Amino acid sequence: MPNELWLRMGSFIIVLIVMMVWEAISPNLTSKVANYKRWSSNFFLAFCGAMTGRLLVPAGLAVVAIFADKQHFGVLNILPIPEWTAITLAVIALDCLIYWQHRVFHRVPLLWRLHRVHHADPHLDASTGLRFHPIEIALSLVIKGGAIMLLGVPVLAILIFEIVLNASAIFNHSNITLPNWLEKPLRKVIVTQAMHRIHHSQVVTETDSNFGFCLSTWDRLFGSYTHEAKAGDHGLTLGLQEYSKESDNTGIGTLLLMPFRKKPRSCAAEKTANRL
Ligand SMILES: [Zn+2]
Hints:
Its EC number is 1.-.-.-. By secondary structure, this protein is mainly alpha-helical. It has one domain (38-246). The protein is built from 15 helices and no strands. Helix 1 packs parallel to helix 8 (155-173), helix 2 (35-56) crosses helix 7 and helix 5 packs antiparallel against helix 7 (134-151). The chain starts with a helix and ends in a 5-residue tail after the last helix. Mean pLDDT is 90; it is low at 267-276. The chain binds zinc ion.
């Protein structure tokens, strides 16, 4: 698939530019921290994550799918179903996997240390959708690789899924508000900005809900859906209370070292240990 990289990069850049222009024209909330400080940290982490992925699987996850196909390994490679049915099922199954992976990263204290780098962003915009610690990216790649083998995911499904996942992350972290007539029906199917902002609230029970990335179905199905934040969409305090100081939530070194520094007792993962 020679055009794979161009398709992924092209769609990523287009969605990022569209959402950042939208945010500039019609922002939902105003950031308390200067955007250039947040953006330099967030985009640098995105760069580190991309490099980690290239080092870990230089040719991408498609190689795992090709290997599974050649070995005739994995559920979808064994079942006698049409190719497009297998692709659709695989994309839906991978989205469900990301939902559970996200939930486990909130539940297990050691994994929360990595994921809190994403949540410590004191504001929410398209760049937050790219702000993940490189070790979280590496673990996620290993998990996805294992799932691709076990499921026998078709190569095309991986390309579709990675484009959809990246676009969803940028879209649902964006600092915009969709009009009610659009947001209400859309949220029944996919994760909207208003739905995902609740997940970035400082209220622990709200942080510990709305884990979905693309389809909103999983939160409704597995009982983790919150329809509205207590403070309302415009009254939300974003980020993590224990990282509310600017020097604690921005800066490249600060974010890279965050998982290795002692976590405060008020950490969301400790407070919500029984919610999984
Ligand atoms: Zn989260």
